[in-house]
Amino acid sequence: MKKHIYLLASLFPVLSYGQVGINTTTPVQGVHVGGPTSTVKVEGLSYPANPNNLGPGNTTRVFVDANGDLMLGNVQSNIAILFDSENYLDDNSNPSVNQITQHGYGDGFTYAGVPRDIPNSTFTLTQPAIIEINYSVSWNIEKNGSNRVGDGNARAIQTLLYFRQNNYLGPVVTHDLDGNLIGGAFEVSSGSSVIGGGLGLSGQYYNNKHSLKGEYENFHNNGTDYVKLPAGTYCPMFSAQLAVSDASSAGAMKMYIGTAKDEVQIIAHYYN
Question: Right CATH number for 79-269 from 3.40.50, 2.60.40, 3.30.420, 2.60.120?
Answer without folding.
Answer: 2.60.120
